[in-house]
Amino acid sequence: MRTFDIKRPDEGLREAIRAKIDNLNKPKGSLGRLETLAEQICLVQQTLNPTLTHPCHLLLGGDHGIEREGVSVSPREVTWQQMKNFTHGGGGVNMFCRQHGFDLRIVDMGVDYDLSGVNGIIDHKIARSTRNFRYEAAMSEEEFDRSIDIGAQLADECAVKGCNILCIGEMGIGNTSPSSIWMSLFGNIPLDECIGAGAGLDDEGIAHKKKVLREAVERFLEEQGAGGKEQEISHRTLSPKPSTLDIIRYFGGFEMTGAIGAMLRAAERGMLIMVDGFIMSACMLAASRLYPAVLDYAIFGHCGDESGHRRMLSLMNAEPLLELGMRLGEGTGALCAYPIIESAVRMVNEMNNFDNASITKYF
Known about the structure:
alpha/beta; six-stranded parallel sheet
């Protein structure tokens, strides 16, 4: 895997940023989360006058071998059908991108369908679906490296257009399964507590999903030389401990590893990264296990309705901007949060201060 040079934002400006925010003509702290969000954006951009330019949204599509095990209520053909629907402007992601002025780029990372002739879809297909991680690694090392590089390239292409805030979404039936496993292994959380209904499984379906994923994790740990029943193992005590890269590669989807590459490259370039729901939060969790500093650039759009999402966010000390019960994916929750990010930037740039407004500063 390529390396990334992700630096923590220079803290030298923090005191001046806080002073500017505290001197806006309002009670100190009265704009709450907007103030901490503005502080983060100013630090990332290293300025007292931040801007949001040419916002871009990457919609990455890919299919998953594990879908063949009946872990999703939706069949895999929904992936390509929705990808085509997006090109006609008919998806939730299209609506929100139009509303908030995002440049939408629809990318085939590994859909199990020939989309090469479809106008509006960027063809970066690595393979037609990952392999079934119940029995083997989802992707090879070469495929993993390619997906990371493609994600990084996509972030570069957005940056060249002038983008300094990148949103990422996904389309891939079955991708809550690898997300749940990443959450479990990276967060030292029992797997059953990380698994939810996905697109709408009933209780019987969830029980089946748990069984399949437990078997997959047990096989992986045995192959890694850290065998044993998953529910009896704490990741902290595994010996040898599976590497972060091995965990990502064994279970991830091409759209997910592509997202990790885009996140890491965006952070390397000093861009803000808008994080969507359960799947994209899992990608940011994985990215942060590789490069912890990536979290300084992340803005978590919302806490979704998928079981375990809030707990996953807590692993990154992340505070989502919204909680609307959404679980569509595609990046829709993050896009809905964009006006709040805009408001934070407008606050720090456009509000008057006590001196200029001739208002007595009373604190």
